[in-house]
Amino acid sequence: MAKSESSGDTGRPWQSYHTVYTNAKAGMEGVDKEKVQRIVYEMSKGSKYFENEERKEAYIKQKIENMQDQIAKLTDADISHYQKVADKRILELEATRDLTRIWLHVDMDAFYAAVETLSNPSLNGKPMAVGSMSMISTANYEARRFGVRAAMPGFIARKLCPELIFVPVDFKKYTHYSDLTRKVFQNYDPNFMAASLDEAYLDITNACYERDATGGEIAEELRKSVYEETGLTCSAGVGPNRLLAKVCSDINKPNGQFVLPNDRMAVMAFISSLPIRKIGGIGKVTEHLLRDAFGIATCEEMLQNSGFLCALFSRSSADFFLSVGLGLGRTDAPEVKLRKSISNERTFSATDDEAFLYQKLADLAEMLSVDMKKEGLCGRTLTLKLKTASFEVRTRAVTLQKYIFSSEDILKHASKLLKAELPISLRLIAASMGYWSVCSLLTDQITELWNFKF
């Protein structure tokens, strides 16, 4: 088993400083990565965020070392046993391969930024980010060429791109355009899965059959329809399952598409050199763990190290990794299930201004209430998540005696949870509601109230 060693250059400490800010996104090809890393490092050093990242890096390093110790303790007999376990499991997983469905993943191109440019054409061609000096929600492709990206503090983005224009977030506007795109999606799959405001999964198997069209032709037609309906471009990926379709949609962004045939050989060839970070569900920690403890950088290497993965990970985790190596993903239409919770959050510059914090809480209470009314739900368990100025995450929750749905009731109980933490300096507040009650009478009452109000 190959093992990757990660070493930092003490003369260039930024080379080993990896955060979400330094991960590449579509449109960032050709960016001077070392320059971005250096600026992010220099402007973050000494901050609470930097200290938190160092703590996380230390945690990841310790986890990798523990994993390496476990690998070293495996005997030849252990390795032989777990390889047999892995080989058997690979055959079982292979037997589940379904090449009968055609899935399409559609992803709007720099959605928030594109909507703002559509609303204000003078922004066209200029580097622009949606957000503020404290945090960016997204950046257009002109800004990405400088290394500017989503989830980056605006002051760092401005350092990378001095000409960067900031536009405030307007979720009402984005929701409007998202609704327009979804009207188009319904023409191809009435049961499409919305992953967020700007992306969705569609099972286009029936659409292909009914229209006597290929997956690529359907993708082309859908993208054209979205543009005609909204004036916005999108990218699409077509593949035999949702996991692969999502990967494919990123290949020819922006305003492009990629089709992976429903053929096992084509899938295995495609997946062989695919970096593991391209796979949804493999984040920074897992990527580092697989790379530095097992030497796994591509999906194909999952299978090459299958015995070790089965030896050191749980059955479910090992199955996921092996499925990735085989290019397997979900092809079934998910069952309609009651959501476990509804949540909303707001990020802002760190502050201990209590009036400001309570106002943010009031905004969240209103948003939660709106979402609950739309779905005809009342909840009993209210949870508040707080991220402090030092990036410590605190959680408080309460289960109420009665079900609630109004913003007034949500705010009343959320305020009590927040008050218990004051005084405190926060940079994020999230509120969620769960433990639902759903009945026809309740739903009718909520619908009447909702219709009356609007």
Structure write-up:
Helices cover 47% and strands 18% of the residues. The protein contains 18 helices and twelve strands. The protein is of the alpha+beta class and 454 residues long. The C terminus is likely disordered. Among the domains are: 87 residues, DNA polymerase, domain 1, CATH 1.10.150; 98 residues, Alpha-Beta Plaits (2-Layer Sandwich), CATH 3.30.70.270; 113 residues, DNA polymerase, Y-family, little finger domain (Dna Ligase, domain 1, 2-Layer Sandwich), CATH 3.30.1490. Helix 7 crosses helix 9. The radius of gyration is 24 Å and the shape is globular. The protein has a five-stranded mixed β-sheet. The chain has a four-stranded antiparallel β-sheet with strand order 9-12-10-11, covered by helices on one side. GO terms for molecular function: damaged DNA binding; DNA-directed DNA polymerase activity; zinc ion binding. One of its GO terms (cellular component) is nucleus. InterPro entries: DNA/RNA_pol_sf, DNA_pol_Y-fam_lit_finger_sf, DNA_pol_Y-fam_little_finger, DNA_polymerase-Y, DNApol_IV, PolY_HhH_motif, Rev_trsase/Diguanyl_cyclase, UmuC.
Task: Please name the fourth-level CATH homologous superfamily of the domain at 341-453.
Answer: DNA polymerase, Y-family, little finger domain
What's the CATH topology name of the domain at 341-453? Dna Ligase, domain 1
- Output the radius of gyration: 24 Å
| Helical/strand content category | alpha+beta
Pfam family, one: IMS_HHH
GO molecular function: damaged DNA binding; DNA-directed DNA polymerase activity; zinc ion binding
InterPro entries: DNA/RNA_pol_sf, DNA_pol_Y-fam_lit_finger_sf, DNA_pol_Y-fam_little_finger, DNA_polymerase-Y, DNApol_IV, PolY_HhH_motif, Rev_trsase/Diguanyl_cyclase, UmuC
Subcellular location: Nucleus
